[in-house]
Specification:
alpha+beta; five-stranded mixed β-sheet
Amino acid sequence: MKNLLKILFVLIALSLNCVDVKSISAAGPETPQYGGTLTYLDMMPQVNPISWDNADWVWKHGYDTGFYAEHLLMGNLQKGPRGTKEYDFVAAAWIPPGFTRGELLERWEVKKNSLQIILHLRKGVFWQERPGIMSKREFVASDVVYNITRLKNSPKAVPAMLDFIKSMETPDKYTVIVNMHHWWADWYFPLGWGYYDAIQAPEQEKAPGGPQKWENATGTGPYMITNYRDGHSQTYIKNQDYWDSEIFKGKKYKLPFTDKVVMLLIKDEATQLASLTTGKIDLMMYINWKHVERMKKDNPHLQWSRYLYMNNFSMAMRMDRKPFNDIRVRRALNMAVDKKVIIDNFYSGNAIMHTYPFPPTFREVYTPLEKLPSSARELFSYDPAKAKKLLVEAGYPNGFTFKAQVPSGFQNAQDIAALVAGYLAKIGVTLELENLDYPSYMSLMLKKAHSVGYFFAVDHGGPFSAMRRNFTTGQPWNPHMMSDPYMDKTWEETAKNPNLTEKQGFEVIKKLAVYALDQAPAIILPTPYYYVAWWPWVMNYYGELRVGGNRAAPIISRIWIDQELKKKMGY
């Protein structure tokens, strides 16, 4: 009766067009509901799955496999907006110290003196049955060893990430001892909750077609994949044997709540927005700021959360080729772009400038603009006269022409690139833009065949991983082609030094980030805010995006659908 009265209140408010978010939220059931389907758009709905096999070392793996393939560690959501509110769980792949919980691990021990990481597996976790692929069986220590070994030996492995592993032991079926060649401060990223370390069933490799086929995919997670349609959707159904639970108002509930999850793949932005506003999808995680005011007016029932975009969008300049092997040229191009005007006019104030490569939310390693040394702070200023002077000093009194690739289909990318080209033209530099589909665009960078300019959006990663992959020699995600002896040496020594506390290690990374910024490896551009929107029948959701490694699945598994309210609202 109590809930019916609440629903009646909502319906009256809706008919008067005066309902607000708090009213709708209060109308939800006081206890979780099971059943129904959640249909949603994730952060990259325009990009199809790149690979279903974790040994291919694809950054997007967690988007596509995270519903069925779990990791050893994940973010502790109870320390986020739904709990203590200490962390927002927006970053793609950074879980700060103290905000981690075991996923497939019950607990773990780190022994610096003996150079060991001891992994204690969660008992009672089972692999999903996949007819023709594998029967239901218990998840055990040999599965972990198999995965780590296969990742480490993959020809596609990212250099340095797993080189610290010397050997592994399994004293019993629930314990794995990882022996290290040397201490590795960033061990939790490549082993625990990073982009590539999902735990995959050994049976997938032996199945016809191998682990590259989605039909062979299985895992230990809350859902099981049942269908994939290229350019359309990925469909997952509830894993009835899932081990995890959610505490709601002091009571434990078995996860997941919904029977099905449909993750849509939609390239066209207008179609994405229409799918939300017509109620065809329940939740959308990636909404451009420029649509929000109109959408709030036209759809007052939607609930909203704002977040600072997790990717730095910049134009990387190849430091190994002319003209960008000259720091004066790189500095000149930064000072030629009026970033404040871009924030005020293009983004209408819905963006900020922050130091590269970390956002302000990375409190452990972030240096505010006002605390940068003057040489680094100057990169954020608009001074076309000085830019021209630097070009003359570098031997380019008449400017020069260069090309830069831009990914097609990414919100604002082409528009921002065109703005940059316009600013550079004012100092005599001609920028020719080459728009490429995402696979072609990525392939050029990974093969190091990209041009001297490359518009680049990369998420921040964690403190250690961001510095390694963006700025150390030979890394595949280093479009700047930075190869700096001081950077390489300092980063490696810090990562390998067991005598540094975590705080001391972060202090070194913080200084190293300022050093990298001072080399002007990119035209640093403003970072916009984006929005999440969801309908009021989406319950137990608080705007979180990730629990590590581009994974939303543990968040999605905790959502339930107030099916009665959805029906009453006409959907």
